[in-house]
Amino acid sequence: MPTSRRTFLEEVSFASLIAGFPLSAQAALQKYAEKPPEPVFPKALQPGMTVALVAPSSPGQGLIDNEVATEIVKALGFKPKLFPHAGETTYYLAGPDEHRAADLNAAFLDPSVNAIFCLRGGYGASRILPLLDYEAIKKNPKIICGYSDTTALLNAIHRLTGLVTFHGPLGGEQQTEYTLASFKKVLMHAQPAGRIAEPPAPKGPPREVFVDRENWIYKLAPGKGKGRLVGGNISVFSTLVGTPFEPELKGRILFLEEVGEDPYRIDRWLTQFLLTGKLSGLAGVALGKFAHCAPGDYKPSFAGMGTWTWQEVCKDRLGKLGIPVVANLVFGHVPDKATLPLGVMAELDGDAGTLTLLEPAVR
């Protein structure tokens, strides 16, 4: 059958996008273009298993950061395995791109490793996407967990291999009771986790009258939607749009969170997503914590003009899509955070303000 002009142009455009990538990455991207992979579920994490600690983004800020991380992993009941380049520093990167990618590839290939925890976020994960061995990752499915800059890895790996990845605590941070409970519920039990990212129980002694304003669930648009989860930190996620590593959005529930950004910048990212036209195929949008994203009084562009809150921006940009939109769920750059599995079927209820996992994230 003759190739249409449109198909030919799309093939040429795709080929030009991946032309400079290593051959292994080109092969994975071409395979995905031909047929997107089915979901691949990693094995459940159990006490005594070995956890790889890698630094695919920025380095730590203290001499003992990696030692503390290994002790945290031990306290969680696992055996830590710190990979060789995790202590390197190249300015704001945890070593050269090739070293950071090598550690991650080696962790997936290492038969003694059962799961991979990213030590920290920052910046740099997107730089190593072309250097990852996606075929090896698919053949050796393992839990990989992190958030913030790790968003780039979680989405690219899931897109090209089908592997369910986890937006959850970093390997080098202490976990609250809430965070640990969600982590165990999602990663250590081969059964549907049910409702997640709900407001935590009030802290302190019981009070006769108490309304939790901090964890108020904003029901920005009504309805119910079912789809596989995809998403992460909004500023990092936006850098994948228009690249060969851009995740599939059609029929998905998109989850987003952010930290330290003014509402106008959140407006800019959401508007960019809308201009691509790809948000029209979503099943729902689940928004987490937008920590420290209140309007700043130091922006000259706001002098005397005022601004929306981040919740108002999200309602304005996302509320007319005809899908459920819920905001202020408990995940993101905050101490209490739920673990969200990318690639798992979920239901978002815009009327009840709930997010429910409908299938196990691990096997």
Question: Biggest sheet: strands side by side, in what order?
Answer: 6-14-13-8-9-10-11-7
Tell me the span between the first and last alpha carbons.
43 Å
CATH-defined topology of the largest domain: Glucose Oxidase, domain 1
Total DSSP helices: 10
Largest sheet: 8 strands, mixed
Q: What's the architecture of the largest domain in CATH terms?
A: 3-Layer(bba) Sandwich
**What's the alpha carbon Rg, rounded to whole Å?**
20 Å
Structure in words:
With 363 residues, the protein is an alpha/beta fold. The protein has 2 domains: 50-174, Rossmann fold, CATH 3.40.50; 194-357, LD-carboxypeptidase A C-terminal domain-like (Glucose Oxidase, domain 1, 3-Layer(bba) Sandwich), CATH 3.50.30. Helix content is 29%, strand content 18%. The protein contains 10 helices and 14 strands. It has helices at residues 5-18, 23-34, 65-75, 97-109, 134-139, 151-161, 177-187, 234-238, 263-276, 310-318, and strands at 50-54, 79-82, 115-118, 143-146, 165-167, 194-196, 218-221, 224-233, 253-259, 284-291, 325-327, 340-342, 345-349, 354-357. The strands form 2 sheets. An 8-stranded mixed sheet has the order 6-14-13-8-9-10-11-7. It is globular, with a radius of gyration of 20 Å. The protein starts with a helix and ends in a 6-residue tail after the last strand.
Summarize the entry for a quick read.
This protein is an alpha/beta fold and 363 residues long. 29% of the residues lie in helices and 18% in strands.
SSE order and pairing:
Elements: H1 5-18, H2 23-34, E1 50-54, H3 65-75, E2 79-82, H4 97-109, E3 115-118, H5 134-139, E4 143-146, H6 151-161, E5 165-167, H7 177-187, E6 194-196, E7 218-221, E8 224-233, H8 234-238, E9 253-259, H9 263-276, E10 284-291, H10 310-318, E11 325-327, E12 340-342, E13 345-349, E14 354-357
Parallel strand pairs: 1-2, 1-3, 3-4, 4-5, 8-9, 9-10, 10-11
Antiparallel strand pairs: 5-12, 6-14, 7-11, 8-13, 13-14
Helix pairs in contact: 9-10
